[in-house]
Design a protein that fits this description.
The radius of gyration is 17 Å and the shape is globular. The strands form 3 sheets. The protein has an 8-stranded parallel beta barrel with strand order 3-4-5-8-9-10-11-12, surrounded by 5 helices. Strands 1-2 form a two-stranded antiparallel sheet. It has a two-stranded antiparallel ribbon with strand order 6-7. With about 270 residues, the chain is of the alpha/beta class. About 40% of the residues lie in helices and about 20% in strands. About 45% of the residues are buried.
Amino acid sequence: MMSLPRRSLGATGLEVSVLGLGTVKLGRNTGIKYPAHYDLPTDKQAANLLAMAREAGINLLDTAPAYGNSEERLGQLLKGQRDDWLLCTKVGEEFDGENSHFDFSAVHTRQSIERSLRRLGTDHLDLVLVHSSGADVDIIENTGVLDALQQCRQAGLIRAFGMSTKTLEGGLLAARETDCVMLTYNPAYREEEAVIDECRRLNKGVLLKKVLASGHLWANPKVKDPLDVSLRFIFAKAGISSAIIGTITPRHLADNIARTQAILAGTPL
């Protein structure tokens, strides 16, 4: 199998695979917006999925404290593999099993990073994103989160930081104030496309979330092949570093990889 290509994550010096693996489904299956319920994978199933991803050249794993026990599970599953992966986690959102709450203070940000380091069993995090509540601009301008992340980078705890945004205005501001922006972009949602263009102009990293609209594109009878439509759509856009797609189904992961390779190579599948 040919490895997936890698792209620069802006000016961070990190090279990320064009597909990243989202890991919310490793640790959480309540209070989510996916169209169907799923059971959490066993350790063996999760290990096999990670091995498949690594074999295909995926090196970016996306997790968060709000993803249940995803960080703890990854810490155990990735023992002895730290050099094979770029670990991206988040700060700001906490999930108690039923509800989310948010804390963007400098103190909580530092505590969250130190906790993630322990859970993931590593001495540094490659990328940390602010997990926005939706009040993007207010978080950037009126909390201590970005200053705390800068201090953590200076201390060697993290290599780069950015923000997972929910608004156009917030994404544009995050593009100026951080190393990387994670945003929603898919055929059914293009409202934040200008953020991608701004990041490209400023040489900032771009990670895409909800590429498949959290599975909801499959509910649209007018779309015959949602995966193909979505992947062709995002990879036709310049300036994207990596698309984060979360799955715990080996067949879906294999399909995502094969489709992406074919599209980027310009060959029919």
